[in-house]
């Protein structure tokens, strides 16, 4: 009882800063289809397997493969500089533009991502001077362009980025900046064939799965045959039937703009007095179809209901010596 009173007093005084741990109690994925001034929405459970949740999982293949290819590139090349790979991250929301070409191929452009990698250099120089350094290299505003019309090839994929490099050392040595220069030169020369080959393979596979195959492409998955939209004049338009009928024509003649989002993006809170919102929302996917056959758009959004627990620190078990968690 004394502990509860003490916690209440701390909260009242505004001094009970600690961390908040989220627990998602339910998830819902809602698809909204827009056409001709009308809209239709439907929802599915976001925490159960269904075609929509399967589609969401497949969406992550492209950024996951890109990060893996870049990680492997860095790891294999940093060794020649006497360093080790420490950590990496891929940030941003993937933006995809898919446009058919007169040659029968598809020009696909990926943007919106930035890559950050940290490597560590330790050792001795001249046998007497020890050093411990960290190099951080960033590839900002990554843009990948792929010409697809068959199996992905490394020579059909181009990648550009804005690279920067910085080094923090406990001693003044000259070897570490060389690695940053090496990465920058590689990127300005468009990385290397091994990276692009893996990226091309991932793009080609995802392109087939998400765009071409009738049973799995995102238009067929998100727009079902039975869907109808009520238009402003009161009439119902059978959007589902038309999409499934015209998918081949739309693939050949339409430009698709696909924007990925993080959805509800539930994460722990550090050093906060109050918990996060009990309901969190965000877009997972936005698709705009610019088609002479059937122009429409789709928004896939996520809603998560969250319970928050007050803990001393998210990164380790609570301790009564630090604070008094609920």
Mean pLDDT: 78
Overall geometry: flat
For the record, give the distance between the C-alpha atoms at the N and C termini, rounded to a whole number.
12 Å
Topology order in helix (H) and strand (E) letters: HEEHHEEEEHHHEEHEEEE
Summarize the amount of helix as a percent range: 25-40%
Beta-strand share of residues: 35-45%
> What structural class do you assign from the helix and strand content?
alpha+beta
Rounded to the nearest angstrom, the radius of gyration is: 25 Å
**What is the strand tally?**
12
Low-confidence segments:
1-15, 150-155
Taking the sheet with the most strands, its summary is: 10 strands, antiparallel
How many structural units, i.e. domains?
1
The helix tally amounts to 7
Which features characterize this protein?
326 residues, alpha+beta, 43% strand
What does this structure look like?
By secondary structure, this protein is an alpha+beta fold. The protein has one domain. 28% of the residues lie in helices and 43% in strands. The chain contains seven helices and twelve strands. The chain has helices at residues 2-13, 51-59, 61-78, 176-188, 193-212, 218-222, 239-253, and strands spanning 18-35, 38-45, 83-100, 106-125, 129-148, 157-169, 229-230, 236-237, 255-260, 269-272, 279-290, 296-311. The strands form two sheets. Strands 1, 2, 3, 4, 5, 6, 9, 10, 11 and 12 form a ten-stranded antiparallel beta sheet that branches. A two-stranded antiparallel sheet has the order 7-8. Helix 3 (61-78) runs antiparallel to helix 5 (193-212). The longest helix is centred in the middle third of the chain and has 20 residues, at 193-212. The chain is flat, with a radius of gyration of 25 Å. It starts with a helix and ends in a 15-residue tail after the last strand.
